[in-house]
Design a protein that fits this description.
Residues 259-272 have a biased composition (Polar residues). Residues 85-104, 222-302 are annotated as: Disordered. It is globular and about 70 Å long. The protein has 20 helices and no strands. Among the domains are: 2-84 and 101-210, no CATH class; 333-422, no CATH class. Helix 8 runs antiparallel to helix 9. It is mainly α.
Length: 423
């Protein structure tokens, strides 16, 4: 119905008919919630998740994040408040109509726990905690990554479109992405390093400890179909209308997924990462780095989730660069941002490093890329005799005089290979 209303009258001057913003937040949860994706064999639930994703993609493309209200719907609840009081989404905003937005957003108007206590926006601490967990899944939990990947693609499309819309009228601080950056905090460089740890999350013990699952036992697979049938048969045998026992009528989910059970098992903000893996109930040892099927440590692009994961990571880097270039006071100026990039990118293995400095698909414009590279390679040239160059832009003449003639200084073969690959 929602899709039909959205597309009705396309090509005419008729307005698009869309629901209140709380429905968008609800649908965004359905697209990735394990009960509708990786923890169920129910085809109808899986279809609902796919339909919800497709509808949100249509809204973002046809109506836009600002006109549709997606920018107001996708707000994370403050983790310090009790669940019951968090449905109003009282978060720090850069706009002046916070009270109006809180009145407009009322998750309780949707009679589903997936709009309230099971909502993505209530369970995740902030956008960056989801980013870090999603990229952890790209390495450690591929079955969950398939759903988080499409969610991240949708979010990056929406964040990019919303940022450009605000750039047109000079209101960058009010954009969705600026709001997500505000959750990081303003005090010092250490808090801003969290962004890079999220973007480069690699499924290791330390990364999983910082960016843990959004929902408890999220990485477990579906319940065994045979056991589900036995449970349903058992419920039907207990049907006793005279005594008020209605069996499984009106039960929308299995006993394991019931609201009561969900409340009992709800995760606190300090919960440890699940030790469950894809589809089986045997504990997996996440105290070690992720390994392949031959029990060997992952290497190369596999250590960061392979090409699709790397592409989304670079899209996030590009979005950061774009915001900082448009409005440095909102977060950082580009030179400080590239300095943080350098801190995290320079130590990574050569096989991955080359994909950030010489990408097959460019993710930065030429000026931004040259600025990042000269800052990235400046430490590599230390001690090589190269003249000091502190400007933020590299011209052809400067490159030929200050960079190209020199090898990496004192770093051995790996640093020389990184330097050569960048040149």
């Amino acid at each position: 119905m929602l899709s039909t209303n959205l597309t009705a009258g396309m090509g005419t001057r008729r307005p698009a008919y869309i629901p209140p913003v709380q429905f968008f937040a609800f649908l965004a949860t359905l697209t990735v919630h394990p009960h509708f994706t990786t923890r169920t064999h129910d085809v109808e639930k899986q279809t609902a998740a796919d339909d919800a994703l497709r509808y949100l993609q249509q809204v973002a493309k046809l109506v836009g994040p600002r006109n549709s209200g997606l920018n107001r719907a996708f707000r994370f609840v403050e983790a310090t408040k009790p669940t019951a009081s968090r449905n109003r989404r009282a978060v720090t905003r850069n706009t002046t109509d916070a009270a109006e937005e809180d009145q407009e957003y009322d998750a309780d108007s949707i009679r589903s726990r997936y709009a309230t206590e099971e909502s993505l926006w209530s369970n995740a601490d902030d956008f960056w905690s989801v980013v870090g967990w999603a990229f952890n899944c790209s390495v450690a939990h591929p079955h969950r990554w398939r759903r988080w990947k499409v969610w991240l693609e949708l979010m990056l499309d929406i964040l990019g479109a919303d940022l450009e819309s605000h750039a047109e009228d000079g209101t960058i601080p009010a954009s969705m992405f600026a709001r997500y950056l505000a959750s990081v905090g303003e005090r010092g460089r250490n808090t801003k390093r969290r962004l890079m740890r999220a973007i480069l999350a690699d499924g290791t013990q330390s990364s999983l400890a910082e960016f843990h699952e959004v929902w408890r036992d999220e990485t477990r697979g579906p319940r065994n179909l045979k056991n589900q049938k036995v449970d349903r048969q058992h419920k039907r045998q207990k049907l006793d209308l005279d005594n008020g026992d209605f069996g499984d009528y009106g039960d929308e989910s299995s006993a394991e997924d019931s609201p009561a059970t969900s409340i009992q098992r709800s995760r606190s903000s300090t919960a440890k990462p699940s030790r469950r893996d894809s589809g089986n109930d045997d504990d997996s040892d996440e105290s070690q780095a992720p390994r392949n099927k031959d029990n060997e440590p992952l290497t190369g692009l596999a250590a960061l989730g392979r090409t699709p994961s790397l592409h989304l990571r670079t899209r996030l880097l590009a979005l950061l660069v774009r915001l900082c270039a448009l409005s440095p006071p909102t977060f950082l100026d580009t030179e400080d941002l590239f300095d943080i990039f350098t801190e995290f990118l320079r130590p990574i293995p050569l096989s991955i490093f080359s994909h950030f400095v010489c990408p097959a698909r460019p993710y930065l414009d030429p000026d931004a890329l040259s600025s990042m590279l000269q800052m990235l390679f400046r430490p590599l040239l230390a001690g090589s005799g190269a003249p000091v160059y502190d400007e933020n832009v590299v011209t052809q003449e400067v490159f030929e005089e200050c960079f190209a003639p020199y090898a990496a200084g004192g770093g051995g073969g790996v640093d020389n290979a990184k330097w050569g690959g960048g040149v």
